[in-house]
Amino acid sequence: MKQLYISMLLALAPIYIFSQNTISGTITDAENSGPLEQVSVYIPQLEKGTITNENGNFTINNVPEGNYKIVVSYLGYETYSTSFEINEGNNSFSYAMVPSVIEMDEVVLSTPFHKLERENVMKVEQKSIAELKSNGAITLADGITNIPGVSSVSTGLGIGKPVIRGLSFNRVLVYTQGVRLENQQFGGEHGLGINDAGISSVEVIKGPASLLYGSDALGGVLYLNPENFALPGQTSGDINMNYFTNTLGYGANAGFKTSGEKLKFLARGAYASNADYETGDGISVTNSRFKEADFKTGVAYQASKFKTELRYNYNASELGIPEEIGVQNNDRDPLLPYQEISTHILSSKNNFFFKKSSLEATFGYTFNDRKEFEDHHEEEEPVVGEPVVEEEEEGPALHMELSTFNYNIQFNPQWGKMTTIFGIQGMHQKNENFGEEVLIPDAITNDFGVLATSHIHFEKSDLQLGLRYDLRSINGDESGIVGDEEYIPAIDRNFSSFNAAVGYRADVSDNIIARLNLASGFRAPNLSELTSNGSHSGANRFEIGNADLKSEQNFQVDLALEYGNQHVEAYINGFYNGVNNYIYLQPTGEFRDVDPIYVFQQQNATLYGGEFGFHIHPHPIDWLHLESSYDIVYGQLDDDTNLPLIPANRWTNTFRVEWNNKATKSNSYAFVTLQTFFDQNKVAEFETKTPRYNLFNVGFGGDILLFNQKIGYKISGNNLFDKNYISHLSRLKPDGIANIGRNIAFNVSIPL
Fold first, then answer.
1. Which of 93, 126, 327, 367 has CA 20 to 30 A from 334's CA?
2. Is the peptide bond before 99 cis (omega within 30 degrees of 0)?
3. β-pairing, 552-564 with 512-523?
4. What is the pLDDT of residues 527-560, one digit of tens each?
5. CA 362/CA 693 separation, integer angstroms
6. This prediction's pTM
7. What is the CATH number of domain 124-228+235-376+395-751?
8. CATH code for 2-97?
9. How is the chain split into domains, by residue range?
10. Parallel, antiparallel, or unpaired for β 568-592 and 693-706?
């Protein structure tokens, strides 16, 4: 197998004779014809760009021949996107930008066609990490809940898992550094394991994305875009510091990057520490404390017809698992039970550009080391007269190592207005146990998939369609002794699936965009669902797998309408999702020791709902913004019972003001937000209802000039009225433990 991977890499390393093609031009203001400085001119397919100088001029060197999309963007102006033919030698491109108060449209990176958000056939939500930070998010899992249709299943503050339109766990695939993240995400108490430092933005694909990503993307994709390299000839650095009053939490990250014309380098380190959080009634939630250290680095080489990028991420976390209200202090070392998790992610992305086609090969290796510590034995009274034997420190009760190699190779021929991708994707994964407890057995998982997808551009519409076939094999070893309660039999299962998707986007008028997407998706049952036989500390339950489970298969219809002019934007998205063989946990009414026993079952399910909202910035007071969004989802099984962990309906209203000073190139903002979470009465049989509650948040920030140095600052207050509440998606809800109370977040960013 290793020889095959090496051969594939060598086959993708031909020697090129580079031609010095360039593209240059001038970017001006359409109203006064004046030059615009600091405008971004970017070629998404090449991941190559620059910014204009004081005269509005720009030059991009070492550009391969072919037809590429050019994106011109600048704050306060309408983002412009067009296809451009690059020929041998010097190429000229100039554009006059139209002023606009609408936020800049960004290029979508989670789909392979490099379209702007408004041009993409699939509806993809994109948020920058800076925007999530301005809302006072303590963790990345907390920050993504500000995106309509996205929630988080949480175990305290340190552990959170994304929920997209009511689907979570292995139904939502996470991508980072261009490769799938594999970190034993089957467990509800297993968080993302990714620090937001070194991530530029988050993209969310809502709905089945199996066509692009295969199994585990049945519910959607959370795509984390890494920090960009510096522009050619530039060197920069920065320090960012955070403080959170509720958890007495502090964190910092520092980064450095430098780029020549061809060679690029970046590095960023981060550390965060939080004590137990306090609820709205002032009670500390014992053992909700957590620590995290993170390091990211990358190197890239970019020539005319070839570029390669190598990135590495190391993350180490200590996460307390709260179970009950106990000791009240501000200690930061975790109590039992707790997790120690370390994750290594190595990715290699390689692009080859030909005159009428391109080839992209991405390889990734992830190593996840998960240790869980818990009370092993009841303390015994010493016997009088016998010497006291000092016990050795016990090792982890659960210790699993998961190593994953994955590959994604895509060929993109250029055929007129049609963009086509042919691809193969695969994964080889090994799970090993080293602790005294075995929750899931040692096992090997192999994936292989082939896909073809095309995007056809018409004058005022776009059509996207594709087909994919996948194979997955799971081979698990026998564990334990036959007849024992902990015994897990060997397993050998194979799963396969065909999936298809078709989407249509049309400019209904100058101001209205319509999208219709029909897509199927699938998810093979994971190793835990098939084989688990053990107690979950974070869940306080004993889970038993089902070796006869079938693959989940779904079909979703998604309809979206968007209206936008210079002062008003509005949208409405609706979806209907039918899932065959939906896998869920069902309590048996029995107990193993003190933990209730849950078994995995299957039944057809239906989810439906959507999101709608508007954004008003009235003329002439364009600095004023009124935003409102409402997201709703319902989920039911065929027997008319409700699905568990379905988020409550949510209504978010924001009043925001922004000021941009073009002379000093500085900006500032302030906002007030009211979030209403409605009654969740449609609950599963083993859940309890959740009453309505409101959260009031405020914040302000911007840039200040200190010693001729621009300093960025953000101050936000979440749950300002200290509301005592319990989220329906909190895994601490059965124990009556509330969510976080008032928290004031401070953030300072210092460029170097």
1. 367
2. no
3. antiparallel
4. 999 999 887 655 678 889 999 999 999 999 999 9
5. 45
6. 0.92
7. 2.40.170.20
8. 2.60.40.10
9. 2-97, 124-228+235-376+395-751
10. unpaired
